[in-house]
Each structure stands twice: as C-alpha cells, then as structure tokens.
Amino acid sequence: MGKKIMIVGANFGDKGSQARLYIVIDELRKRFSDCQVYYAHNDEQLDGALYRFGKISFTKRTQSQVLKSNPLRSITKMFHKKDDSAAADKDVADLVSEMDLIVDVSEHVLSDKSSIADIEYYLNNIKIAKKFKIPMIIMPQSFGPFNFSVDNMYIMGPMQELLFYPKAIYCREQFGYDEMIGYFGLDNLRRSRDMLLVDNNFDVSNVCSRFYRSDIPEIPEGNNVAVIPNSQYFSKKDFENRLDLYKMIFEALKDAKKNAYIVCQASADMDICKDLADHFRHIENVHLIERELDCIEFNTLLTKFDFIISSHFEACVEAYRHFIPVISVGTGECFKELMEPLGQENLFFDVSLENYNNFDVIDALNGMIKDPDISKTRILTRTMNIQTENSFDVFDELKW
Q1: pTM higher than 0.90 for the full model?
Q2: Segment (H or E) for 87
Q3: Which residues of 115-240 form beta strands (DSSP E)?
Q4: How many whole angstroms separate alpha carbon 357 and alpha carbon 239?
C-alpha cells in the first residue's frame, strides 16, 4: 500500500487553482506510483468517476472538528456523498491521522488582503499537520503584505507559531520572501517561481480516469487573441473605466482583423464575460467561449491564440509556459515579478496606480499587433532558462 497524501488549498472554480492541484498530483504519481492522493475540498460536488484521486469534504466545520479532541467519534463521520466514496466510511480524524504528507497549493491567502476566516482556515491546516506529526510542504505561492489593522493584528501570533512547522515553504516572489523573513525569521523558506511555469510533460492519466474526455472549443486557425477578464477589477467605482478599456481593446483588434475571444478563467468571472460579450455584440470580431472549461481544456485552448490579454495571473503563467506573449492588466507583485525576468515588464499595467490609464494599454496592444515576435522570441529564450528551476524536487527529499 502506497503513501497517503492530502492536498489542501485548491478549488475547481478557478482553473489556475485546479491546474496546481493536477500538476502536483501528476508529479507525486511520477515519483510514487502507488501513492494514494486525497483532495481536501470545500464541499464541492465532483463526479468521482472522472478522477484518480480520493476526495475529502474538508469544510471549516469539519476541519475544526478534526482539531478537537473528540470522544464522540460519530460527530466527524463522513456523509455518504457520491464524490466522497473513497473516504465515506472512515472517520475524518482517523483518515487525516494516517496521512504521510500534506501539500498546500494555495494561491495568496497569507496577506492582509485576505479575510481573517480564510487565514485561520489556512493556518488550521498547518495546525492539523503539526497535531498528527505529518510532514507538510507549502508549494510556491504569494505572501504578504502583512499590514493588518489593529483589530486583526492578533493573527500574527498564530502565524509566528505555526509557520516554522512545514518542511518547506516556497515563496514565488522575492517580495513575499522578504516579508516572511522580515516578520517571522523563518528558516524553512525557499524561493521558486510559479509551479505552472514549468513544462513537466503533464500526464493526464495520473490525474483523470479513462472516462475523462476533454472538449476543446473549435476556433478558426490564426489571428486569434484571448481576452481574459477578472471580475474583481469591475467594482462600481471602476466599472465604466473598465468598460471603456475593453471597448478600446476590441476596436483595436477589429482594426487589426483579429478575432477576440472572451475566455472565463474562474467561475466568478462568467457573468462579467457574458456582460462584455453582450455589451459589445455589435463588434463582429468579438466572441464568447460560452462554456466554463476545466484546467486541461483551458490550457489547451490558450495554445490557439497569437497572444492573450489577461487580468488573471495564472493565465499569464500558463501562456508563458507555451511561449505565448501576454499583455496583463491587474495588480500585485506577482505580475511584476513574473514578467520582469522575461523582459515583459512594459506589458504589465497596474490598475491600482494613480498614473494608470487605458491609452497606455492600447499603445502596448498596437505594438504587440505590429510585431508579436519581439515578445515571443524574448519569452522563448528566457522562459527555457527559468524552467530549469523545479520546486517539485522537494518531493525527492522525502526519501520514501
């Protein structure tokens, strides 16, 4: 019987998050072919027949129950759900206590931008690993800033206590590494770029069953651009400005005789994708990918585009892995530190800055339309060097 491994911090609602789950499972199975992998999900409804991993409904309530001393064992019994058949008859605490490794694949939870409830959930996963003496690895993700309000400053105490426990914590940005060192003085920190940037020859059979079939939307060859919005940037205050930006983008692409495909990366973005498609339906080159794709379909679809315009970090990473140029409109150190080493920093536009304006984005877009090969050549050369970095080597240190 192989080692038991639980993966926390993922969700299927965001294709970047789902991709991180998939790539970690693939890497684990390549090293430990007989390992038993469990995805600890937040009560998602999943078709168990499609996947080669177990599923544990690991809500905040369940997580809290696992942490308690629990004389009434029936309290934490698993409900018999279709997607949880692998663990349905087993007590959650018993199942977790048998794990040989916990892997966290979160995106950006330890930050003053997150809710205290989400931070506590994150820390409780470390607390569980510590309680049952289970090794834990935190895969590359963003950290900080930690400028908590006076009311929330107390959370720094549990962070200081628990962050020393994991075997390794990977920071994907230097900013996050400096924040973690500066506030906590950790000796288990490591630097590594986003795991999705590495081309690991992903083997779908390590993750999905023979019943899985991808369904890639068909689009004509050539002259295609993906437009990937992020609903977080469409606040009431910024809505009209964002609408103007996409109007300018679609018109520039129309003038260049390029098809614009609006693609949804996260479930939360589907409404804004539909709104944009409806609002600009009079522009004949604007198309909507109407179906929400899974991460495998999303990744494959990206390869059909000349370049992408994205407000989602993960889409930028996936595109660079395929040497596809990107214009990014977002905010955060993650964009900056991803694009600078690839010589693409002039194609990142931070919407949080006072001097941000839509015309700069359109100037960059027109430059990309004129000669995308300039970016592509630079990305190809620099990404190949970066891809030699591999945070997955930490699994080899387990010496199983």
Answers
A1: yes
A2: none
A3: 136-141, 168-171, 189-191, 224-228
A4: 14
pLDDT in tens, 195-224: 999 888 999 999 999 999 999 999 998 899
Distance, in Å, from the CA atom of 307 to the CA atom of 285, rounded to the nearest integer, reads 16
The dihedrals phi and psi of 180, each to the nearest 5 degrees, come to -65, -40
Type and span of the H or E element at 338:
helix 333-339
What gap in Å lies between CA 137 and CA 391, rounded to an integer? Answer: 10
Burial of 186 (0-12, 13-18, 19+ CB in 10 A): middle
Q: Are 176 and 190 in contact (CB under 8 A)?
A: no
Task: Please choose, from the candidates 326, 392, 400, the residue with its C-alpha nearest in 3D space to the C-alpha of residue 137.
Answer: 392
- C-alpha distance across the termini of the chain, in Å: 13
Least Cα distance to 302 among 364, 377, 227, 367 occurs for 227
Quote helix, strand, coil % in the chain, to nearest 5: 45, 15, 40
Per-residue exposure over 204-220, b if at least 16 CB sit within 10 Å of its own CB, e if not: eebbbeeebeeeeeeee
pLDDT at position 90, please? 56
> ∠ CA(345), CA(274), CA(221), 5° rounding?
65
Q: How far is CA 288 from CA 179, 207, 266, 277, 365, in A?
A: 40, 29, 14, 6, 20
Contact criterion met (CB below 8 Å) for 111 and 145:
yes
